[in-house]
Amino acid sequence: MGALGHYIEREGIPTAQVSLIREQTAAIKPSRALWVPFLLGRPFGAPNEPDFQRRVLRALLSLLGRPVGPVLEDFPEDAPVADDQVGGFACPVSFAPATAKGEGLAQAMRGEIAQLAPWYDIAVKRRGRTTMGVFGMKVEDAASHAAAYLDTEPKPQAVDGLTAGVALKRACDDIKAYYYEAVAAQPGNLSSKAIDDWFWRETAAARVFLAIQQVCVKSSDESLQPLGNLSLIPRAVSHALSTDQPRKEMI
Amino acid sequence: MARLTDFAEWEQKHHLDKIRELPEFGPTPFVSGPPLGERRVAIVTTSGLHARGDRPFQVGSADYRVIPGDTPAGELIMSHVSVNFDRSGFQEDINVVFPLERLRELNAHGVVGSVSEFHYSFMGAAPIRALEPKARELAALLKKDRVDAVLLTPV
User: A139 and chain B: CB distance < 8 Å anywhere?
Assistant: First the structure.
């Protein structure tokens, strides 16, 4: 982010940026930056908080009036948390313990997708949008594509013009978006951490992802390597697994 | 939270290691402009946002996508390759990542002069040096559009 600030301002256009990791911004020294103490992924603080978002935006815009720089200022407020926000919860849709592997695990994921369907539909209706769509197919098709990697000798269906890795990444991103949007529509106002914990600790889909990661690590297909290293399993989950032997053995 | 001290030690190390990998940027450029109420503002996000049907980002993508200002929120999706930031906020309300509605509101109140018809999106996980030629290209487009304030927003 700070790099873009340098490059664009160098061409003669004033810039002001939001900073999420203050130490990185301080090292890059862009022209104007507003550090905000918010969750990564939420540079304007919190969803459905227009007044708060507007305050952040006003603070950012105000930096453009500073006569000298570089400027690195701190936004003084933490992101609002709704009174009814739930930090942990039990999903009302009850999933069977996902101890299965291979096709059994794929079936468990398909079952979850079916159970979550009404909640996903409610989410789309309530929000008027979905963020699914990078794979360009229905979630059931994305699940079938991902599940093909659970076979002893994976033979996923080729997707026109895409490497195996890119197609798999997009399928997995859409599956995850579907789960996250569906569960957020359920009763309770779930925190992002509650949703993360539920997905990674309780769903067969997460077990599918973890199994796929191992397939990608061992694959000779270079396009699958990023999914083995970085772009499928969050660092926090990988770290937790590395220190949680009983759970590691379940994968 | 995104205070480094709030992160676990191993996560702090990850973010601090990134600082050591940064290239040298040289002196900070600093360009002034007219009063805010006269400025034309564009948003450049590094969230990997783009219109549904546009080319998704993938590992190593250092180019940008154009987001016409009249693109409905429902037509914007995110293909950032990283899985290490929250997306539930974006799923709930696009303004938490791409505050175009908020910017338009401030424009309606005269806080900024105008809002660009076009906004742009990179993917933050791109190799830093590879961004430079595309950023220059983008700056030329912004100038053609008379933009004199760019808001850079990460995820």
Answer: no
